[in-house]
Amino acid sequence: MFTSVIIPAAGFGERMGASVSKQFLTLRGKPILIHTVERFQRCNEIAEIVITAQRSAFARIGFLVSEFHLTKVRPLVEGGERRQDSVANALNVVDPRADLIAVHDAVRPFLHKKILLQAIEKAAEYSAAVVAVRAKDTVKIGNDSAFVEKTLDRSSVWIAQTPQIFKREILVHAYMLAKEKNIVATDDSSLVEQIGIQPVLVEGSYDNIKITTPDDLEFAEALLRRFEG
Ligand code: CTP
Ligand code: MG
Predict the structure, then answer these.
(1) Of all atoms in ligand 1, which is nearest to the CA of residue 15?
(2) What is the rounded distance in angstroms from the CA atom of residue 28 to the CA atom of residue 224?
(3) How far apart are CA 85 and CA 198, in angstroms?
(4) Residue 145 domain-assigned (yes or no)
(5) Atom of ligand 1 nearest to the CA of 106
(6) pTM over 0.90
(7) Which of 5, 12, 21, 216 gets mutated to test ligand 1 (max ligand atoms within 8 A of its CB)?
(8) What is the pLDDT of residues 4-17, one digit of tens each?
(9) Could you say which ligand is closest to the alpha carbon of residue 103?
(10) CA-to-CA distance for 51 and 65, rounded, in angstroms?
């Protein structure tokens, strides 16, 4: 089984509001992007790592890749306007031998190996797997004027995270259709759902946060202590 991972890292981190994109902010002196990439570098089931980034960050990332001996990282791919465009660009260069393609946000450095392995296994079995956690809060759908339209049954609500892992041809097909029909989505699973595939949910961990706002950085420092002691 040949599994590739695409790591989209071409965002600007507007909600973080830092002077550099959040994937380059450091936790214990190491950029978040590198913490994330190391999770895959150290996992034997992952054959290659494809990172998409802003062209202006290529030199910086290239330097980090060699400093941290990230030998599975392939030549960098330029990102696009939206996350979806960045992933689409990466899909074009994934090794043709890949059976499975995982997509994982550059800013989720707290992925447990056990969950990654479970997700790979489920994707191999069911063709599409999404790491997610059960909602702790009740989710309301609001209308444009912020009045409640609907309350979802919490027992069936899941919060999607990454990795999301798919059989190669499924992900490629989903992205082709999205381009053709101008479908825009915030995660890869949504695009795969559009081609009639029902991904399996893999119960993940609340640790696997997407570092998004300044509050998350403090929390991330605490999580890192749990991860690395
Ligand atoms: N991403 C990307 N290309 C884009 C936008 C986002 O590769 N055009 C990546 C980000 O770098 C991040 C992941 O997709 O690793 C998840 O996106 P998000 O958390 O929204 O990051 P940003 O877009 O950078 O943040 P913001 O939305 O606050 O600007
Ligand atoms: Mg974004």
Answers:
(1) 28
(2) 9
(3) 23
(4) no
(5) 15
(6) yes
(7) 12
(8) 999 999 999 999 99
(9) 1
(10) 11
